[in-house]
Each structure stands twice: as structure tokens, then as C-alpha cells.
Amino acid sequence: MIIRTATLEDLPILLDFEQKLIEAERPMDPTLKQKEKISYYSIEDYIKSDHTEVVVAEVNNEIAGSGYGQIRDRKDFFIQKQYGYIGFMYVTEEHRGKGISQTVIKYLYDWFKTKNLEEVRLTVYEKNPRAIKAYEKVGFEKHLIEMRISLNN
């Protein structure tokens, strides 16, 4: 397995990964538009950005996974001025359970360290226990709980 920085040539595959990720998450979030094509990320802009590192995992010269690390500013009341954020974690079905997401995350940890960041965060749906378990394996701990209520019921 090779983890490398994504290029614009990878964009068609990454856009497909994004749609598969959205498809998997739609049942977990009734607030997402269910029928029309939506996009979570500006992947092309992220690839070009200095504050975001988009990476792909290659297995046998095939892109099998993705993720990004992004430097985000914090509000003034926090000790650190910036933190790292991980998103766009996706692994193709045939390569799940092989440690790809953990390897991508560890790669991003190293990238964040070169930027002198001290903390990394991410968000995950509570109804996605497989992802939660994978994040806990690489050291993440639950920190905040976001709650919602629909007023249309």
C-alpha cells in the first residue's frame, strides 16, 4: 500500500468516492437531500490548497481509499490558534478491513505535525459504529455530542 498526495488526475475517482460516501451517509442523516446529487467537499480546491492535504491510498496501482487533512482556525478563546481536521475518509468495499483508513490517518497525523499542530478533530455520524471503531483504533476519543430535533414531526 502506498499513501500519496492526490493530484488533479485523481479527481474523477475522488469525486466518485465522494458520491459513494454521501450514498452511505444519507440513511444516517434525514436532513440531507435524498434524491439529487450533492457535494460535501471542494476536492479540486482542496488539492490546490496549501492548508489542505488530500491523500489517496493505492493498492496494486489502484486507488483504494482517500482522506484529507485540513488546517482550521480556532476561536480566540482556545489555547491553540489552529487545529487539524480530518475528513473525506473513504475506502472501497473490497479493501475495507485492511487498515487503509488507519494508514491514511497516520499519514495525515505526520502532515499535521509538520505544521506544528497539537490537536486533530473529525466528525462522524453516531449511527456509523464501524467508522467510530476505526477512529478509536488510532486514538480518537469522543469529545462533543451534537444533538438535533426535527420540528416538522
From TrEMBL:
Keywords: Acyltransferase, Transferase. It holds the Pfam family Acetyltransf_1. Residues 1-153 form the N-acetyltransferase domain. Gene3D superfamilies: 3.40.630.30. The keyword Transferase applies. CDD domains: NAT_SF. This is GNAT family N-acetyltransferase.
